[in-house]
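Attaching the record inline, Q. Sequence:
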Amino acid sequence: MKADGDADLHEIDRFDRGVGWIAYPGEAMERASHAIAVPNEESETDDVWVFDPVDAPGVDDLLADLGTVAGVVVGLDRHKRDSAAIATRHDVPVYVADWMTGVAEEIDAPVERFGSRLADSGFEAFRIRDSMIPPWQEVGFFDGETLIVPESLGSASYFRGDRERLGVHPMLRLMPPIEALSGLNPERVRVGHGVGVDERAALAVEDALSGSRRKAPGLYARTLRSALGI
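Structure, as predicted:
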């Protein structure tokens, strides 16, 4: 599921002020990272916010095309990934939600906490899930146009049910985060596993949430057949 060794950066999700990448395009997990540029009135370059990054040769060049890195963000307690390494290279903090526990202590870089807004990024930060069973702390981000969902939604094959462009994480299929993710009406969605959605993005989110329970048996059966090689 998760590759290691030499990374081979594959660009995804390019739009006028952002870009994404998958550092190991052949892995089943399809771990995706994203960078969003935000205008800075006090600087000649835009601020660049980096979300849940996996490092790879060429990442710094990709970021430099957008502006100057202002911060690296961890959106899921399990997504520390290479946040510390990239933050250290760019001499910026790693940003962690103020309600997340046990995350900051495991990051080998300066950490800044944030609440309902991600510093000066323009992104509102909202709690998607905070549970002990299963252990899961996830924060979403929305600036009125771009919705970033680190884990609850994804487009990797093991997330998606029949005819879905986005799917709810297999562990959450029977208890999808409907309240957290409904009614946002994004123009685009970026996810932590797989490529994002740029067309009819709000509809893709609502379809994923509304069909989550109904399509769960088919997704689980397909995943089991794949695991067994049937």
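Helices lie at 59-64, 83-90, 178-181, 201-210, 216-228. The longest helix spans residues 216-228.

More tomorrow.
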